[in-house]
Amino acid sequence: xxxxxxxxxxxxxxxxxxxxxxxxxxxxxxxxxxxxxxxxxxxxxxxxxxxxxxxxxxxxxxxxxxxxxxxxxxxxxxxxxxxxxxxxxxxxxxxxxxxxxxxxxxxxxxxxxxxxxxxxxxxxxxxxxxxxxxxxxxxxxxxxxxxxxxxxxxxxxxxxxxxxxxxxxxxxxxxxxxxxxxxxxxxxxxxxxxxxxxxxxxxxxxxxxxxxxxxxxxxxxxxxxxxxxxxxxxxxxxxxxxxxxxxxxxxxxxxxxxxxxxxxxxxxxxxxxxxxxxxxxxxxxxxxxxxxxxxxxxxxxxxxxxxxxxxxxxxxxxxxxxxxxxxxxxxxxxxxxxxxxxxxxxxxxxxxxxxxxxxxxxxxxxxxxxxxxxxxxxxxxxxxxxxxxxxxxxxxxxxxxxxxxxxxxxxxxxxxxxxxxxxxxxxxxxxxxxxxxxxxxxxxxxxxxxxxxxxxxxxxxxxxxxxxxxxxxxxxxxxxxxxxxxxxxxxxxxxxxxxxxxxxxxxxxxxxxxxxxxxxxxxxxxxxxxxxxxxxxxxxxxxxxxxxxxxxxxxxxxx
Length: 559
Hints:
Elements: H1 2-10, H2 14-21, H3 26-32, H4 37-44, H5 47-58, E1 60-62, H6 72-88, E2 93-97, E3 106-109, E4 112-117, E5 120-125, E6 138-143, E7 149-155, E8 160-166, E9 173-181, E10 195-200, E11 206-209, E12 213-218, E13 221-231, E14 235-244, E15 253-257, E16 261-268, E17 271-276, E18 281-288, E19 293-301, E20 310-318, H7 324-327, E21 344-346, E22 352-361, E23 364-376, H8 377-391, H9 404-407, E24 413-416, E25 424-427, E26 430-435, E27 447-453, E28 478-485, E29 488-493, E30 520-528, E31 532-535, E32 539-545, E33 551-558
Antiparallel strand pairs: 1-21, 2-33, 3-4, 4-5, 5-6, 7-8, 8-9, 9-10, 11-13, 12-13, 13-14, 14-15, 16-17, 17-18, 18-19, 20-22, 22-23, 23-24, 25-26, 26-27, 27-30, 28-29, 29-30, 31-32, 32-33
Helix pairs in contact: 3-5, 5-6
């Protein structure tokens, strides 16, 4: 049957064969290429089909645009240049400009950098084209009351700005969540209410709320984690609330925790993750109908065991910019004056997450160590079935944590983080950090950049024209330097079928981390006057602060 179908297909004109095959994915094209010599030749000599394979290999997608993108050959060339820039951390343009203000409350979503200070929220659409102007494409500002501002976030795809402020003393809730238009600062026309009320004291009596909060938007959902709320009896409680902001005046649900919850993230439209200060990862799924959502814990994951006298002090997610599941929507980005937008974006089917943990010794609390580990979102979601299998007989909150030895050793990649402050920015499959060679915490000395790419396909060679179906394993490089020059030292680590790692225990952990994940690592020889770093699909943002923590400058490296 297959042979007959193939015979009919190969008798078609080449243009029609290409049109039929263009509906296949990169993996499907690699398999189809093995059918016969005719199909192989068509795939190997079609720019369109090779472009699909390249995008699939790099786990990228082309962002739709109202403007003509040009011929496929041009777009494929741009994709390869884009990947080469990241592969070697050789930026194609460096843009620097003075910030309009200085502040500690900021966000970076969808190519827009926002900073609060001196009574305003300042927004800048950052340059993304390496061949054009080096200044912000567009800037604007909205007034804000800094005295009561707690936090803010925004979703450019929905023209949504969310401002979290302290509620007035005579009100019966902790925080006001203002839903505004990102472009005009007016009440958002799609919101059911211009202000949502977080933590109502009629349901959850409290005396004082002045702890940190985290707010995040994912399409129709708006969620907030309110920490360190003082309730009756002077107990400290954390609250997690979620709304469908287009239809709900009241939260769909409220979760109350007596143990400290430090962070959260959406894993999917119907799943989210909560992180406790001892590193416990809890995954929740939505259960119920559209009007009443009852979150159920579907997995609890433990950290590696520590040696005697050691304890976890803190844990949080590295999310600069906002996690990709929130940033990668199917909406357009109407924020560039000429209508142009970045061409490429990591696929939304998976992403790397960064978890930062700090441990300390009970008998000497000054003896503290920080670590970061990375894990794929898809791996966390896949653990729910394993957790159910292990603990199906236990009920509800009585369920134990899945030991790290079961879930983490083959899925997590750990690194010490003692002297990198908290500077790991994650986007898609890449991480970037500033290396603090001085080993002095919060040093202002120039720093090198380290970029790591955890795309699983990079254990194979990049497909060349005529060899699309042959993804050959690269020679293993155990951290050896193999290229030097032009101001860069380039290293590749663990590009092989087996990840590079140490099975031994690393003090103060009482069990091994595991072998880690295959990845490519690049360290620049060039140093940068920067103390903070952020990234997205095509830019690295370098911030410099003075000793008073005031922002001085922003450099944008366009890849």
